[in-house]
Design brief:
Strands 4, 5, 6, 7, 8 and 10 form a 6-stranded mixed beta sheet that branches. A 4-stranded antiparallel beta sheet has the order 2-1-3-9. The protein has helices at about 5-15, 70-75, 75-85, 105-115, 170-175, 205-220, 225-240, 250-260, 265-280; strands at about 20-25, 30, 85-90, 95-100, 120, 125-130, 140, 145-150, 155, 165. Helix 6 packs antiparallel against helix 7, helix 6 runs parallel beside helix 8 (about 250-260) and helix 7 (about 225-240) packs across helix 9 (about 265-280). The protein is built from 9 helices and 10 strands. Mean pLDDT is about 80; it is low at about 1-5, about 45-50 and about 180-200. It is globular and about 50 Å long. By secondary structure, it is of the alpha+beta class.
Length: about 280
């Protein structure tokens, strides 16, 4: 049966089946954070591991806002977003699922020979292969293939066909990074100084948090050349904080969230971060 056209109807139907959902605006991206949640002003949970990082009544924080609560989905703030929404997204990891996003015909042909059959959903350019089980999300695990599970969202494009099967090791293996045999020569980057006790000064919250806050502000205030601004900002953060191991997932999530509020996709964020690391030889 086809899904209802009105996004809220689709969202409520999915939520009733235990799938956490959220609205997407034009460009297939989540709605930006409200003023109170902007730049983590709401004190959102540091790990961002679960849906609903704060008590904000609006659909803030991208994938982390996904919910199955019909009262939230039908609340005034969410209803306003649904009226502007162009599609419905869901948090695969929150539903106990992993989506293998195949972007083109070559990727589909590879999957048919390399992965066990499961439920498939047609997309604009390719297919979503949906498995039961969760894992870390990862982009560009091979040409035209992304993995969307925990800390990510996927567009709902219909029920698909076939039976959902168990997440195979072949998919999990795709996200395991192989050691590189050739690494680019690192640029002359100053290694963060340590004090007399061997402690890294970046672990001082006031120092590291100020750096992340400044980076978030730089991205947020970009009025043009957003792609370039995001890349240059990621490069600056990594050049200062990337070698000592003090950057946490929470810091990276804040940077990605700021970029996504400016319309960047998760893929663009991941590519910019990876390119910055490569440039610095990290």
């Amino acid at each position: 049966m086809n899904a209802p056209l009105y996004p809220l109807h689709t969202a409520l139907s999915l939520a009733a089946s235990g799938v956490p959902v959220l609205p997407l605006r034009r460009g297939k991206v989540p709605f930006g954070n409200c003023p109170d949640c902007k730049d983590s002003g709401c004190g959102d949970r540091p790990n961002m591991k679960a849906a609903g990082p704060c008590r904000c009544p609006a659909p803030c924080h991208g994938w982390a806002a996904a919910t199955t609560d019909p009262a939230v989905l039908s609340s005034p703030a969410w209803t306003a977003a649904w009226r502007q929404a162009v599609s419905v997204a869901y948090h695969p990891g929150g539903a106990g699922l992993t989506v293998v996003d195949l972007d083109n015909a070559d990727a589909i042909a590879w999957a048919r020979t390399a992965l066990p059959a499961t439920r498939t959903v047609p997309t604009t350019r390719g297919e979503h292969w949906i498995y039961r089980g969760t894992m870390g999300s990862s982009n560009a695990v091979r040409p035209g293939v992304d993995i969307k599970s925990t800390m990510s969202y996927a567009r709902y494009l219909g029920p698909g066909t076939g039976t959902v099967t168990t997440l195979p090791n072949a998919v999990r293996a795709l996200a395991v990074k192989k050691p590189s045999t050739v690494r680019p020569a690192p640029q002359d980057i100053a290694v963060p100084a340590r004090d007399g006790n061997g402690a890294c000064r970046h672990r001082t919250p006031a120092y590291l948090d100020r750096g992340i806050a400044m980076a978030v502000q730089r991205i947020t205030e970009a009025r043009s050349a957003v792609h370039a601004t995001v890349y240059r900002t990621f490069l600056a953060v990594l050049s200062t904080h990337g070698r000592c191991g003090c950057l946490s997932d929470a810091h990276v999530t804040r940077l990605f969230a700021a970029a996504q509020t400016k319309g960047e996709t998760l893929r663009h964020c991941t590519d910019a971060w990876t390119n910055a690391r490569t440039t610095l030889g990290l």
